[in-house]
Structure to design on (349 residues):
């Protein structure tokens, strides 16, 4: 009898340990701490999705749950699609990342003459982070936003250092439109999303009715509110997607045998510039990606933020582990969840 009781207690202990360390409990605990309304999660290990599901609500008013097919804003996780498209156009012989921006913006100021396409891709142009004409509540051509920055001085000498720049990605979007002969969102859909099988990924247009689209939320004085409407389209954070679609994209990145040649994929993740002057930091920016090291694991990642939405996509490339998180809450810090899940998966591999 004593042996049976001991065995039962051991079983309960093991079960409890497994529950405490489970993906669900980690995610749900941090969602509660951060007051996240809804979250979509994909975890891919050795090329296979081990988690693809939603937590919480896509729409709090209608009590609609998040699922793997919920469409959520990616924010700046979208930047990788623009840099991939630029390298696709380079492979097609339609541009070169060494091209000066004056080739595409001939009326740009002389101070912009040293800027090349690669500087836009790597946040090393010296341009202001935002163009003065941009307004969340106004739909306007990318070129209008870009030209509003013409009178502004550079913040530093081109190529000298890293400074995050959304204006640069408006310029990349305009270059894609000019060179491809079609709107940037159409080129990216046709050349990236369709080949990857991503049927539910599209531009963040505020007005169309998009099935399964999540609402965005924010808290003010502890009260949950609908997030401010973000009517304008920002190429710097220009796409919506689902965790199921992002799993398909992760497969493309992992295999490196479609859309781009292998050498072009590798170029995206080649460390181009350090992101900080901290000598101890190993963080660099490539082209649309941050390359770093965390607890001895090589990391390629990017975060994203639009009003009412936060996302994070991390690839532990040497461990063949990817974690993708999309949320619909302004105060969310999905990178915290990524780190907690990574610790769990590495501990239990």
């Amino acid at each position: 009898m004593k042996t049976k009781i001991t065995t039962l207690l051991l079983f309960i202990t093991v079960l409890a340990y497994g529950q405490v360390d489970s993906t669900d409990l980690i995610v749900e605990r941090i969602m509660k701490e951060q007051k996240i309304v809804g979250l979509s999660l994909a975890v891919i290990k050795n090329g296979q999705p081990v988690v693809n599901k939603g937590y919480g609500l896509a729409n709090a008013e209608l009590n609609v749950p998040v699922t793997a097919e919920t469409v959520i804003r990616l924010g700046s996780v979208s930047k990788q699609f623009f840099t991939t498209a630029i390298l696709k156009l380079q492979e097609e012989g339609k541009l070169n990342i060494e091209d000066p921006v004056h080739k595409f913006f001939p009326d740009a100021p002389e101070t912009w003459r040293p800027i090349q396409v690669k500087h836009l891709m790597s946040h090393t142009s010296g341009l202001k982070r935002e163009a003065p004409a941009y307004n969340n509540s106004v739909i306007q051509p990318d070129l209008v936003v870009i030209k509003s920055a013409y009178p502004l001085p550079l913040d530093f000498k081109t190529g000298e250092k890293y400074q995050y720049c959304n204006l640069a990605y408006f310029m990349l979007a305009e270059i894609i439109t000019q060179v491809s002969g079609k709107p940037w969102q159409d080129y990216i859909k046709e050349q990236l999303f369709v080949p990857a099988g991503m049927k539910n990924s599209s531009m963040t247009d505020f007005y169309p009715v998009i099935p399964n689209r999540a609402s965005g939320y924010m808290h003010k004085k502890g009260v949950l509110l609908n997030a401010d409407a973000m009517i304008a389209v920002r190429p710097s954070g220009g796409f919506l997607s689902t965790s199921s679609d992002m799993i398909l994209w992760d497969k493309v990145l992992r295999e490196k045998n479609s859309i781009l040649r292998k050498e072009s994929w590798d170029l995206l993740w080649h460390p181009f510039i350090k992101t900080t002057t901290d000598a101890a930091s190993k963080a660099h920016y490539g082209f649309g990606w941050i390359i770093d090291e965390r607890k001895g694991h090589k990391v390629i990642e990017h975060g994203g933020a639009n009003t009412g939405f936060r996302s994070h996509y991390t690839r532990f490339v040497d461990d063949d582990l990817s974690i993708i998180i999309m949320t619909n809450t302004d105060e969310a810090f999905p990178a915290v969840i990524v780190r907690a899940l990574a610790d769990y998966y590495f501990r239990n591999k």
Observations:
- Residues 1-21 have pLDDT under 50 and may be disordered.
